[in-house]
Amino acid sequence: MSSVYLSYNHILAPLGFSTDEVVKNITSGKTGLKVIDDEQVFQETFCGALIDKVQLTSRFNKLNSSKAYTRLEQMMISSLTEVIEAAGIPLDDRVGLIISTTKGNVDVLEVDQAFDKSRAYLSALGREIRTYFNFENEAIVVSNACVSGILSVAIAKRYINHGIYDHVFIVSGDIVSAFTLSGFHSFQALSKTPCKPYDANRVGINIGEVAASALVTRSSNHLSEDAVEVLSEGSCNDANHISGPSRTGEGLYRSMQSAFKEAQLNANAIDYISAHGTATPFNDEMEAIAFNRMGLGEVPLNSLKGYFGHTLGASGLVETIVGMQSLKNETLYKSLGFESLGVSKPLNLIDKTIEKPLQIFLKTASGFGGCNTAVIFKKVK
Amino acid sequence: MSQSYKIKSYCHIKAHEVSLNGKVIYANDSNTFSEFIKAAYKSEKTKYPKFFKMDNLSKLAFLAADVLLKNENFDPEVEQNIALVFSNKSSSLDTDRKHQETIQDPSNYYPSPAVFVYTLPNICIGEVSIKYKLNSENSFFIFDSLNARHLKIYSDILLSNKKADEVLCGWVDFEDDSHYEAFLYLVSLEGNTDHNEHEINKLYNI
Fold first, then answer.
1. Are residues B141 and A262, on separate chains, in Cβ contact within 8 Å?
2. Dihedral through CA A41, CA A47, CA A53, CA A54, nearest 10?
3. Alpha carbon distance B34, B60 (integer Å)
4. Phi, psi dihedral angles at A377 (to 5 degrees)
5. Contacts of A243 in chain B (CB under 8 A)
6. Which of A141, A239, A371 is opposite residue B142, by nearest beta carbon?
7. CA dihedral of A173, A175, A181, A183, whole degrees rounded to 10
């Protein structure tokens, strides 16, 4: 089977409107998280990462679109434009489009919204993005809770390996809305201060918003400087609980097993883990158990939620793109918010940003509905 | 070269009727979906109290999967590697609207975790996985209508890559009381129907 690569990419986040700017800010230890006291957004004070409205509008207006687009569509279009331009690939029948999101344009369900409520259908979001760029193929929309972003990378690779497409553009995005904030608040899952993944004092998540895009391709002629090979993947269910992770980390463990088996790799081949680390007590504990079951307890690991918040269906892709920068820059980025280990099994948290040669990294994610995904990436250049 | 797979069995739930392999096994003329699905569930004699906590989409998907998988008579002691690949148009919008109602009015604000957890379409995959102890591959896709080509390709990929032994695949959509539909089918090495786009569409339209 020929190689499949993750290549040109773009991040549009509170930390910056390009992958380079975002990574520069991560390197200097900046976070996109802020305490937000704004009744227009949410009736309670919360800590989250919001994209500046004025900045987004001015960025989007540069594209001179004559049509009205929702906030999420503006984010996704702005981000994907960069990747399509950088890739320089004609959007013919050999090119796929995958969109990953949990809630899409859920804000159109609010009263007094300018957009028709039909825009809340995720297939409508798919149509808008496809039509804007003139993709020949119908958009494949993946909505599989918080693994959606990384699962789309796995799906794109599978489609290419199977000979259906030569290239797949992925765009992932989710917005911060009263809808999600109120829901997580009702679960008592929100932290009022910046989250602390894997820390002894972690109390919950912060919600963030982001759009991220990337090209997945079989063509070695379309590789960016930071391109990685997508070696293998697995996506297995806990079959345990719809809103709580398995106590044994079963689904995540099996996802990793599936990926390791396919890549024919052992745990000691992994140089770095870009973990999920939401900073809820149960999630992080579950991950620690699963990583230890795989013999990965000593591998340097971080959660990037301290920089972006939990960006739901986009988190897996944005964190993978940062992982690509780790390999390119030979740098392990600090797991922001971490001070002392607060899980029952050993983990090697990256407590300060350091340079280190890196070849292979593992990205994992887990979500509601018991879903988990693990994907292994290898440096190309 | 990829192997050719078969459709082993299939189940429909629509217009207050449940059918298995094209034969109606339950029907009633309840006024609402809730009444219908509860009565259909009872007729199946699956004792599973969690059913009553599920939202409409999960009840629909759960019952369709239960009717179909029960008919396969799997040995409960043997772990099954059956991937779940579901799709629909309306995502979790029925429950999204319910959650939205609870937060719309600040003077009458009552969001509930029991509702919010169902505001993701793949929760119904989780419900089926829990009942049948399926620690397998799973994914939820959104399309305007049943996309037989995509479902066929993705099932073939999971089977030929040995990520799954069988794939429970199809369409589970809940828009409202009078617009709902489940069509699930089991893709396997054995069966009487060829696994191709034409057959999937044909069975869907039965």
1. no
2. 130
3. 10
4. -120, 145
5. 113, 117
6. A141
7. -50
Tell me the per-residue pLDDT of B29-72, one tens digit each, with 9 for 90 and over: 988 999 999 999 999 999 999 999 999 999 999 999 999 999 99
Check whether residue A191 and residue A238 sit in a common domain: no
- DSSP codes, A139-194: PEEE--GGGHHHHHHHHHHHHHHTTS-SEEEEEEEE---HHHHHHHHHTT-B-SS-
Residue A121 to residue B109, Cβ atoms within 8 A: no
Over residues A203-207, mean pLDDT: 98
Task: Flag if B126 and A159 touch (Cβ within 8 Å).
Answer: no
Asked if residue B55 lies in contact with residue B112, where contact means CB atoms within 8 angstroms, the answer is no
pLDDT for B164-175, tens place per residue? Answer: 999 999 999 999
Alpha helices per DSSP H over chain A: 19-27, 53-61, 71-87, 122-133, 148-161, 178-186, 250-263, 281-293, 305-308, 315-329
A371 vs B125: CB contact, 8 Å cut-off?
A: yes
**Residue type at position A112:** D
| Both structure tokens of A59 | 């960025």
ipTM summary value: 0.97
Asked if residue A199 is part of any domain, the answer here is: yes
**CATH code of domain B6-204:** 3.40.47.10
- Distance from the Cα of residue A381 to its chain's centroid: 23
A218 within 8 A of B115, measured Cβ to Cβ? no
Expressed as residue numbers, the domain containing A37 is 5-217
Q: Which of A175, A196, A217 is the last residue of a domain?
A: A217
Contacts of A94 (CB under 8 A, 6+ apart): A165, A166, A167
Q: Domain with A265 in it: what CATH number?
A: 3.40.47.10
